[in-house]
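Reopening closed ticket. The problem is back. First fold of the pair:
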Amino acid sequence: MEFAPLNACTRRTYRVDFRLALACATFLLCTGCHKASTAPPATVTEVTVMTVQPHDTPVSIEFTAQTQSSREVEIRARVDGFLDKRVYREGDLVHAGQTLFLMDRKPFEAALKTAEGQLAQQQARLYVTKANLARVIPLAKQNALSQKDLDDATGNEKQAEAAVISAQGEVRTAELNLSYTTIKSPLEGLSSFARQQDGSYVSAGSSSLLTYIYQLDPMWVNFSLSENELLRYRAEAQRGTLRMPANSDYVVTVVLADGTVFPAEGHINFTNPAFSDQTGTFLVRASFANPKGVLRPGQFVRAVVSGAVRPNAILVPQRAVLQGAKSHFVWVVDNDSKAHQRVVETGEWHGDDWFISEGLKPGERVVVDGAIRVVADTPLKIKGAPEAAPKPTPAANASPDQPLHLARRSGQPAIE
């Protein structure tokens, strides 16, 4: 195949087209390089800051607790016999003196009759001995009878009197046994289910449990405090970083399983003086008025203990505290609106805030919102103050060396 040679006109046309294409490519390349070299304008990080102001802060300490009846009574049979009938409805509220069970009375009625008969016999014997003594005394004065006869008559009369007293005791015992066949509640409270059914033979003793009665008002709430916690918070009280309420007058609030707060406040009425050798904790008990029976025995609740105060405490929102490689830190803003990293020692949580033990001074400004975007020594744009937390109400003063009975770091598991 042969190609025709290009003439001069065709060569000139190709030359012009090539130059035009080369010029366009050069223009596009220069334009792209110019755009790539243009840097975007720098943006200033917007943050909110707060000024550190120490103040007395009431603290609430939370425990996992369990409710307990203030009086839990075991209803047991006091005599041997057959159980005739249960006369209460299981689970109902029963009143003091209300009949719960009836036992077969017939054997005890017969025993009472026998005792009454023996008493009558002894009383008749006493009558005879008294009459005999009355005849012997004047005859002995006239020396018609010997002194021995007088002593025998007097002794018989004394023995008869003792026999009557013994027979009266037997009658009283029989009456008590008969009364024990009607089993009544000794207090007002909530009844449990019957452990023995009608027709069962029950005996007096530990094996004759019939049911339980639980007093609901007042209700006790029990929780535990470990030895380590007690010593740590006692040391804080001695250093003055924690102040106890006067006379250890703590207020206890109960939070139920669904998050609702029990309306009545409780007060601590007992602390066990000895630590448990098994758990290393000691028992603390609070008492609550429970007239409507909202609290029931055995419930697991949260007990929030209030009354302690941290004087001159520094609080910052939790979102202002960041976690570094080795410790917690915050961003402190200087007078030039530049941020500097500051290592802090954190304490307990207090709602949405965090106690700062060391690292901050009064009057310093701390970044709250936007702290995660802050770069060190870079100017910041401060928008405005974050929403302020409600000012705490100081509690009553107490002696710094007063022993601490209750304390727990928030968020720690409860000790059973």
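Second fold of the pair, where the issue appears:
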Amino acid sequence: MLSQIIKTGASSRMLVSSRAILPVVQLLNTRRLLSITNNGFLLQKKSDKSSKQTKSILTDDLLTKAGIDIDDPSLSTKKEPTSEKGEETEGSEDGKDAPGNTTKKTKKARKTSTEIKRERYSNWFYIFSFSGLAGYGLYMTRDWEENEPQELKVKVANGYTASLMYGRFKARFNSIFTYFQEPPFPDLLPPPPPAPYQRPLTLVLSLEDLLVHSEWSQKHGWRTAKRPGVDYFLGYLSQYYEIVLFSSNYMMYSEKIAEKLDPLHAFISYNLYKEHCVYKDHVHIKDLSKLNRDVNKVIIIDTDPNSYKLQPENAIPMQPWTGENDDKLIQLIPFLEYLATQQVSDVKPILNSFNDKNNIPIEFNERAAKLKSKFVEEQKKKAQGNWAISLLGVSSSPAGSKFPLDLIREEGEKNYVTFMKLIEEEKEKMRIQQEKMSGQTFTLKDYVEGNIPTPEQQMEQQAKLQQEVDAIYEEKKKEEAKNK
């Protein structure tokens, strides 16, 4: 019984003690958790602080050698503190200024060896460039030389004063730009032939929108149409004029068209292009004074007024041809034929005598009709005065009683027919010659082995070939005559 009471008391004391100890244990557990949390927080702070102090093994030198731009702001994750003036500063390793350090140093951009070499080479380039320009500028101030244009020498004299040196420099510097504005040669045409073979006048014709017209379409591309009467116009007037074709376009575009107009170069004496124009006031001008011909004996027919703005007195303007069927070129032939057969020393007064240069054919026909009627009346009066001769039945009209312009036209037509026969013969001979020479070719092996004939042998072969071509052509003419 006593033992039960003792056990019961002990258990009750244990129960009481366990109930009393439980809050204490809970308090201790709470304090332990708080201490762990605090220790973890402190450890984290220490680790953050130590991470700031640690350095990466990828140093700036290694990154630079690897080709990485370390100064690229997009690759930088560290923000440098800035001073009041906005300059980046370089602090201590932990991001704070060292104690007692009151000065702030600006961060210098790091340069690679390639950038340093590039800067060095560029500096040398600038030095040599400026030195060369300065030397060339000083060279342009020298005295005039014999081969320089006389027009430059007249403006500024020789001497080494400041004003004269500047004047020579300015004149030479301006002449550099005029080089690109002037034609490539001072004389665009060679000297004229001797008097027996020289044409009395020179006729300059535009190509675009006067003799031909070019159009572009999506279906056909570029197509060029030849104006009606062009062949007759060129062939007929070539007996009176030295015809010069002056295109308003560049040579690379107009040369093939000019070759098709006159493949034998029988009508057109010379071809000129846009490269031979004078560039002035933002337009290309066909300067007739550059043709190496007497300007008083030169006529230009063009559709663009800017083309002849330097010599408008020598021009016959025409409206641009757009592809329609007309005969305006043929209408010009009587006037141009009359002008070339009158031994004119200056064409400008005759051209300027017309009220409207655009209607020269009409006005000329009116003048010619008046002259012809007057000529007929004079011939009638002469016939009436010789009544005694008329009674005997003898004609009183002289051999040249026809109107002079009609006689000129008849003679011109005969010459044109004869000339065109010669052209056709030459075309046929050229065709036969091309057929005969088609098999005569030289290979690279012939050039290397020296199997090419000498110039004398080539001349002999050419003469024999020409004789063969003439013989073949004569036989062909005889056969055609027999067939007729």
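Update: turned out to be a display glitch only; the data is intact. Residues 1-22, 77-100 have pLDDT under 50 and may be disordered. The CA atoms of residues 188 and 291 lie 5 Å apart. Please close again.
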